[in-house]
Amino acid sequence: MKVLVACEESQAVTIELRKLGHEAYSCDIEPCSGGHPEWHIQGDALELLKIKWDMIIAHPPCTYLSNAGACRLYPQKGVLNEERYMKGLEAKGFFLKFYNADCDRIAIENPVSSKVFQMPRHSQEIQPYEYDPENEHPYTKKTRLWLKGLPQLIPTSPDAKPIGPYVPAGTGRKDRNKYGAAKRGDDAKNRAKTFPGIAKAMAEQWGGQL
């Protein structure tokens, strides 16, 4: 299949699809960090929606949509940060371009969003530890999937138990060093990368082997 993996600089999903024989391309405004620039299109992913794809997997930016940023969206109880709200609406518009794309198979991945943005109903919620047979990322980090023409992902480590959240909540009251992302000093860009087990499950369950 000819597959677009939009907003993916890590190439995690792209590489797994390539292993199975698919003509997959990552696309992002940033250079790729996955080591395969020959499979990467640096530029505006929306321009690539003008091309017919067999499948689109998108990871649109979530900074202004995510419920994790609710404290910035509402800096005071009941007071909406209008500037951040408008940026969130722009991000929703970008998300909907993929959601409404002319493609028979679409998967969009994003974290839980703030209710104020009234996102379309998601198809599934997944966790990193559920797709971790190699015990590489035994953490919780709830992610939502919006699927069209694709089945829900089946956990590849259904009996696994998480050791804690990947990204710590709060700032000062907890020991941040015991959490997955904080322990390794990961910045926001690295925290947004697709976990290896999830990338492999997406490729194998949605793409299969040619």
TrEMBL record:
<feature type="region of interest" description="Disordered">
    <location>
        <begin position="158"/>
        <end position="191"/>
    </location>
</feature>
<feature type="compositionally biased region" description="Basic and acidic residues">
    <location>
        <begin position="172"/>
        <end position="190"/>
    </location>
</feature>
<protein>
    <recommendedName>
        <fullName>DNA cytosine methyltransferase</fullName>
    </recommendedName>
</protein>
